Design the sequence.
């Protein structure tokens, strides 16, 4: 009999993009995601108009991964709502985050 773990309705080994922590934030935030298999992935941060502020691309392992965004990122010159999107060859998801002064 196969046993699987579920997290918020998604299998633990499936694709998931998590809410950034902390949110709202200033200074630094961490965005976690789970991949069903090792893959390339691109994390894109955009403002509300869709303008791309930051892109982080890389090779990530199967399972849980995270991207840490710090004060060196150029979107820290803004405040308010931003969107982040994770794209892989087979999946895509978008969430929003709030940056404060």
Sequence:
């Amino acid at each position: 009999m196969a046993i699987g773990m579920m997290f918020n309705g998604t299998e633990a080994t499936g694709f998931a993009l998590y809410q950034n922590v902390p949110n709202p934030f200033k200074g630094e935030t961490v965005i976690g995601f789970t991949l069903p298999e090792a893959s390339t992935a691109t994390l894109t941060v955009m403002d509300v108009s869709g303008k791309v502020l930051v892109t982080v691309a890389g090779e990530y392992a199967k399972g849980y991964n995270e991207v840490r965004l710090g004060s060196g990122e150029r979107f820290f010159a803004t405040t308010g709502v931003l969107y982040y999107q994770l794209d892989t060859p087979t999946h895509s998801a978008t969430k929003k985050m709030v940056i404060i002064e």
Observations:
- The radius of gyration is 14 Å.
- The beta strands are 6-7, 10-11, 16-17, 29-35, 39-46, 52-60, 63-69, 80-87, 92-99.
- Residues 12-99 form a domain with the Immunoglobulin-like fold (CATH 2.60.40.1930).
